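Continuing the series of single-chain predictions for the mutant panel. This is the parent chain; the variants come on the following pages.
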Amino acid sequence: MGVYARAPLAFERGEGVRLITEDGTEYLDAMAGIAVNALGHSHPKLVAALAEQGGKLWHTSNIFRIPGQERLATLLTDHTFADVVFFTNSGTEAIECAVKAARKHHWANGQPERIDIIGFDGSFHGRTLAAVNASGNETYLEGFGPKMPGFVAAQFGDHDALRALVGPTTAAIILEPVQGEGGARSWPEADLQAIRRLCDETGTLLIYDEIQCGLGRTGKLFAHEWAEGAAPDIMTVAKALGGGFPVGACLATADAAKGMTPGSHGSTYGGNPLAMAVGIAAVEELVKPELLAHVRDVAGYFVQQISGLKDRYPDVVVDIRGKGLLIGVKLATPNREFMQLARDQHLLIAGGGDNCVRLLPPLVITQDEAREAVEKLERACEAARQKAKAAA
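Parent structure:
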């Protein structure tokens, strides 16, 4: 189906932070499959895990024990607030699980009327009907029928308005600690702490969508960890969880998941042995303190250098946003045009809302590779300037 506005590029292989076309042309990948290939392309540990498990067992069924699930779930719960995990194939499936778990929690508490999920403008939680209704982009709902009941829109950053929305039918508040597609907006730590207090006061569950900003992307294992005392009740992850292999997860406290009893939810492929083997290999690398420190260092370099571009090209670069290696650059020139100018320099970057582009490189990117990315970005800025002058 013609649902993708594809760039005219096809890649044959990848090595680290490089993608290589069939004719051998190299591109520096500052997209990482939209924050997916966190450990770069063809990471030897992930390749080995996939090959070893692929020769043993791909799929059984969730009616049996899957030891890899137990091992990966323990890895995740040992490093988070969570007590339990449900494995999915994608981020949007993890969101579906989170919404269902939140509503079922209140049902189990004798409050079936508490079904409303409050989300925020600029948010993006996936493409299923529940996920797009929870998200803040109206265009994703066009043509798909009426809005689903039980989803309420709030304004990013307006705490008084949010407080007024929370009522007797509220089940949960859902947010991305750092918005991805919405323009790389990062929630202030004080806001996350205030929302956590609001949820505690009102018996509302707090859901974090860390599908893009989690698993090391911001320089901590999860973005909400920058805000002390603001842990969620439920959290969704995916993307980096498999380092490129499709896998997602919904994490929760035992209390938040109290309604998720046998038969209440399920998945045919979710948590299959192949996905679990790769997920274990990926998470074992992503939790390493030295990798997280490296992300903080390289992110600091990136922001410093891009700030320099903003000073030199104020007619192109309007603002710098995000956190860690989820870097948003708001532009004066159309972002889709700028993405092409970057590709002309053999640099791959992602688009975003509010006329932003995003830099989401593999977390293993070196400072030398970061310097190369900035040089390519600068040449794209110069090309944008010259294009604007020619048009004038």
